[in-house]
Amino acid sequence: MSTIIHNAHTKAVLLLASTMTVMSGAIISPALPGIGRFFNEAPQVVIQLILTLPALMITLFSPLMGYLADRFGRKPLLLAMLSVYGLAGASGFLIDQVGLLLASRALMGVAVAGILSISTTLVGDYFSGTERVRFLGLQSSAMALGGVIFINLGGLLSDWSWRGPFLLYLTGVLLFPYALAVLREPRTSTASSPEASIPTARVDVGRTALAYFIAMISMVMFYMFPAQLPFLLSEQDEVSGVAIGIALSMAALTASIVSFCYGRLKAKLSVMSIYVLGFAIAASGLGIVGATHSYGASILGAAVAGSGLGLFMPNTTTWLMRITPERVRGRVFGGFTSTFFFGQFVSPIFVAWVSGWLPSLRDVFIAMALVCLALTLIVTLLGKTLLKADSQH
């Protein structure tokens, strides 16, 4: 296999693996009403945990996965996690007890922790420079586009049965042989030599922590759509699973388009400028959802918000790749995955808390729009002071 062909296959595996991760919980989002009717004795918060519990497990296990990837190698761990993802995720098709369903979702979350941490780390191992920046944008685009495809398939299958969307997790099993044949273990990822355990430089704790925080808050906002929009739409009118899936996928679709164009945008704007732009656009979209009362306007708001939030994933991974020493990259991206998905897990909890202080769910969307505007100003200020170097193109 020539180098060019092998490189293309490697990129395909990494993109497919990434596609299955970020929206892995949202695959079953259109089926939530049906799941709630089947487990009608379970509180609504338990039904929402079926959606978000994987994110908690990702939060808890991503740092461990990053350490294991640095210590023992990327490929074996990635292959194992693909298998667990497929089997644990698809088991929901057969389960009749809410406790067992939660357990299977937790195990699937552990697998996602490994898949996303390792696949993102491998991008840093395999690529560098402009090629890396472009591929990170392509990776984020594929992740969001996967959300569009899987959520709509989930909506279609949920009209057949609430169990149907769980079959989509079998993609992990299907990807296993392709990944086994294509991926090569990077030389820098093992601890085969004494020098490999010595970091070449210190981690920039301040900038890394800020990158983690931005990843977390962006996911809190992004996951308001799969976790809250179905309930918001059901208040307006009777909508089908397909209609819910279309509405939910709009944020993912525009996020995919923007992420795909990230490489070109990064060639013109700095890291800080892109963050400012992302927060400003996200504020507009969240505000539209909160201020209007129609299905069409909700779709428009989701599309606008997605176009802003779609900038955060590639921008943050690009920034972390640049400031992180190579030999601790697995651990740093394990931490990134952890905080990223903590935002997903805490999103419905945060919304439930804020809802206790506000009259309606729409007001929560407006409140988050105001938070985005505040963050726009804060990041602008940081870019002109403490992070001036990251504001330089």
Automatic annotation (TrEMBL):
Q: How does it sit in the membrane?
A: Multi-pass membrane protein
Transmembrane among keywords: yes
Kindly state which keywords UniProt assigns to this record, in alphabetical order: Cell membrane, Membrane, Transmembrane, Transmembrane helix
Q: Where are the transmembrane segments?
A: 12-33, 45-65, 77-95, 101-123, 135-154, 166-183, 209-229, 241-262, 269-289, 295-312, 332-358, 364-387
Q: Which domain of life is it from?
A: Bacteria
The record's subcellular location field reads: Cell membrane
Coiled-coil positions = none
- Keyword Nucleotide-binding part of the UniProt annotation: no
The segment(s) forming the Major facilitator superfamily (MFS) profile domain are 10-387
Q: What is this protein called?
A: MFS transporter
Q: What is the lineage of its organism?
A: Bacteria, Pseudomonadati, Pseudomonadota, Gammaproteobacteria, Oceanospirillales
